[in-house]
Structure formats: structure tokens, C-alpha cells
Design brief:
It contains ten helices and five strands. It has helices spanning 7-25, 29-48, 57-89, 101-126, 142-150, 157-166, 173-185, 214-224, 228-238, 256-292; strands at residues 191-193, 204-208, 239-240, 243-249, 253-255. 64% of the residues lie in helices and 7% in strands. It is flat, with a radius of gyration of 25 Å. It is mainly alpha-helical. The N and C termini lie far apart (75 Å). It has two domains: 7-199 and 252-292; 204-249, no CATH class.
């Protein structure tokens, strides 16, 4: 359910709100530090893009992270603006559900980019330690990158520093974002409730009861239906084509306030990690550059 405006009217209303939201986000100290780090990365790129060494690929992932962080700010600002616009026009409780297409679109966009940004930031640091091929379809995700860096901690100070930085991006809000990113990839995009999630907003879907889950399913069934005859009827109804199924809440509804809080925390942590990663990248590339220079006879 959304706002019924024609496009010019919608843009005239939401545009100023986007500008205001973006202005608020870019006045934060984290953003200022991010811009400084971005310029530093550009300087390193000008100096070391010509370095014929796989370590130079770190710069490519760094530039991608720099772009993604700006896009995340844009997506969050657009989400905030559309939510504010919705709340101005549609009051809480006036509808059974409060989902607004543009707000869902931009928040989903932010989720996608936060997850991708964390992966690329980890690859940026791993490239300082291992020769990575950017065109390899089997490049590791964040969790596998952390495993590989932890495996080098005892031998490399750079790896130790990288792990210390990336630990800030583990768990918590990033698991929250990962959950909804996974839902989107499984064609069950999260439903963002602007005024908060309620039990009636989620609804069950039919899922397969896997062999490993059967004992727990039968135990719950026995608890819910103590009468053996009634229980058997329910169990027979759960079998379709000889296969056991059950209802399960889709768990894809999220309160906007919770999502906004999680996205912002991820954003500031990513920016802080990026600033330190740029410094580590610059020092490592400078060291490699000096070692690759052949002294004149």
C-alpha cells in the first residue's frame, strides 16, 4: 500500500526530504573521515596502480568500497525521506499494514550494498596477504576471508591488523542485515513495516520437514495433540505425496525503526573500518613498491 501521486508531484514532495536526510548523514564525523580516506585511497591509486603485483588488486576493491559507501548513504537517505513522506500522509492504524514501495525498494538496496561492501572490504585486506584473481568466480565471502586471514595472523603483522579491523564487522547488526539479504536472494524480500511489525503482518508458508527435523516435529505434534487418533489425522494431513510438510512463519517482516538503526550502525562501522583499511593498504603497497625497485648498478 503506497501513496497515490503522479510522478512529478511525488518527486516534488520527496526531493527536498532526500536532500535534507543526505545532508544530515554527511555532516557526521564518520562521513568527513570517510571523505579524507577516499582522497588518500585515490592518491595511493595514482601511485601504485601501475605496480605489477597482485597486491595492487587491493586498490580495486578499495575503490569499489569507496563507491558502495556513498551509495549506501544515498539509499538510506532515500529510505528515510520516503518514510517521512508516508508518515505525513498516512496515519498509524489507518490501515492493516503500512508498507510503502519506494521505502522498501531503497531499504532493500541499502541491505544489498551493506552486505556487498563488507565482503569487498575484507577482500581489500586479504589481497594484501594473498594473490587474488578479481575474475575468479570462487572468491571468498566475508566469513571465509576472515578464516584465511586468521590462518596467517601468527606469521604476518598485516594479517593481524586486518583481522583486528574486520572483527568490528562480525555479528550483531551485520547478522541482521545478512538475514534479510538472504531472504531477498531466496525470492522472499523482507516486508518493511513503517509503523512497526505486528503478529498479523507475517504469515506462514509451507515448508518441507527434513529428516533431521522429524523427531522435533513429531514431539511438538504429540504435545499439541495428546489424543493419538486426532494426532494421526493431523499427521496424515501433513503428508502430501508421501512427503511431510508443515506450516512455518516466513519471518520476513521487519520494523522500519529496527532496520534503520541496524543499517546506520553498519554504515558507520564500515566507514571506520574503511578509513583504517586505506591506511594499512597504503603502507603495504609502499613497502611492496620499494622492495620491487631494482637498484641501479
Amino acid at each position: 500500500m503506497g501513496l497515490k501521486w503522479d510522478l512529478p508531484e511525488y518527486l516534488s514532495k520527496v526531493g527536498p526530504l532526500v536532500v535534507k536526510a543526505e545532508d544530515t548523514l554527511t555532516k557526521r564525523k564518520s562521513w568527513v573521515a570517510f571523505e579524507v580516506a577516499g582522497r588518500s585511497l585515490f592518491t595511493s591509486a595514482m601511485s601504485y596502480f601501475g605496480l605489477f603485483h597482485p597486491m595492487a588488486n587491493s586498490l580495486h576493491w578499495g575503490m569499489a568500497v569507496n563507491t558502495l559507501l556513498g551509495e549506501i548513504v544515498f539509499a538510506i537517505a532515500n529510505t528515510q525521506a520516503n518514510v517521512r513522506l508516508y508518515r505525513k500522509r498516512i496515519k498509524k492504524g489507518s490501515r492493516p499494514t503500512h508498507i510503502h514501495g519506494p521505502a522498501s525498494f531503497y531499504s532493500g538496496d541499502a541491505i544489498l550494498r551493506v552486505d556487498a561492501c563488507r565482503d569487498k572490504l575484507a577482500l581489500m585486506l586479504l589481497a594484501l596477504e594473498e594473490p587474488l584473481d578479481p575474475e575468479d568466480a570462487r572468491l571468498p565471502g566475508f566469513a571465509d576471508t576472515m578464516k584465511r586471514l586468521r590462518g596467517r595472523e601468527s606469521k604476518s603483522l598485516t594479517a593481524k591488523k586486518a583481522v583486528k579491523l574486520l572483527r568490528r564487522l562480525e555479528g550483531g547488526n551485520f547478522d541482521f542485515v545478512k538475514k534479510y539479504r538472504r531472504l531477498a536472494s531466496h525470492r522472499a524480500n523482507p516486508r518493511v513495516e513503517i509503523y512497526g511489525a505486528a503478529p498479523h503482518h507475517d504469515y506462514p508458508h509451507v515448508v518441507l520437514v527434513r529428516k533431521a527435523d522429524e523427531p522435533a516435529f513429531l514431539k511438538k505434534l504429540a504435545k499439541d495433540y495428546p489424543d493419538p487418533t486426532q494426532r494421526q489425522k493431523v499427521l496424515d494431513g501433513c503428508r502430501i505425496g508421501g512427503v511431510l510438510y508443515r506450516h512455518k512463519k516466513a519471518d520476513r517482516v521487519v520494523s522500519y525503526s529496527e532496520l534503520e538503526r541496524g543499517l546506520l550502525r553498519c554504515l558507520w562501522k564500515l566507514m571506520g573500518c574503511f578509513c583504517n583499511a586505506v591506511s594499512l593498504c597504503g603502507k603495504s603497497l609502499e613497502k611492496q613498491h620499494k622492495s620491487s625497485i631494482t637498484p641501479s648498478p
